[in-house]
Amino acid sequence: MKNSPLAALCVLPLLALLLIFPVPAGPGSPLDAADSTLNSPTLDLSQAQQALALLKGLLPGSGAERPRLLTLLARACFILGDLSEKKDIRRPYYEKGRTYAEMLLKEDPGSAAGHYWLGLNLAGLADVGSALEGRSLLPRILEELRRSLALDEAYDQAGAHRTLGRIYFEAPRPPFSVGDLDKSLKHLTAAVRLAPQCSTNHLYLAETLQRLGRKEEARRELEAVLTSPRAAWHAPGLQEDQQEARRLLKDMGE
């Protein structure tokens, strides 16, 4: 999906002004507008692209808001990579997201957000890359997520717990990789405890429980997906989570 010419004309004058004047802080600022767009329940690829363009235009005058801006840039790039369909389009977003997260960590090594979005964008690169690239990136992905977890385990709806739990679920078992259902269960149980409103936390926990043979517990988590108000990372994921939960419940005999 591409931006319309009219949308581009609306964005460009604003970006020109933002290159001249510093970024204002507080409610109603351009950062708030971009953040609100990324959190929109109707977010689509075009809107996310416009939010990224706005955020990139804010960098020269970011000032005290720079850490938040870099966080939003890394997040926007990950979202765009996730929303895009073709690997050759997704990769540049993840690479740029990695760059923004590394910039944030260079300026603030203790940023839970920096470690988290670096881990997520690296995971995106592993997803679109070869099996060899994925294996080479995995240690760094785990390291960044663990660092984020140690700094703020609740960040992004317990995002580090959620992502680590999913990696341990999906990866092959040793000696081939790091797969471990017990570790998956530990992290995803923590994710649900810290962010019970997140549908993706419940869905991932349900799938781990199901693989462990704990079907009644898995069923309860799937039912929780259907009443959750939000998904991980972006709003469009909620419908996807709920569709998958209904499919799994049907397979279980609901």
What can you tell me about this protein's structure?
With 254 residues, the chain is mainly α. It folds into 2 domains: 46-152, Tetratricopeptide repeat domain (Serine Threonine Protein Phosphatase 5, Tetratricopeptide repeat, Alpha Horseshoe), CATH 1.25.40.10; 154-254, Alpha Horseshoe (Serine Threonine Protein Phosphatase 5, Tetratricopeptide repeat). Helices cover 73% and strands 0% of the residues. The protein has 12 helices and no strands. Residues 1-26 have low confidence and may be disordered.
Compact summary:
The chain has 254 residues and is mainly α. It has helices spanning 5-20, 30-38, 45-58, 66-83, 87-107, 112-128, 131-151, 155-170, 181-194, 199-211, 215-225, 237-251. Mean pLDDT is 89; it is low at 1-26.
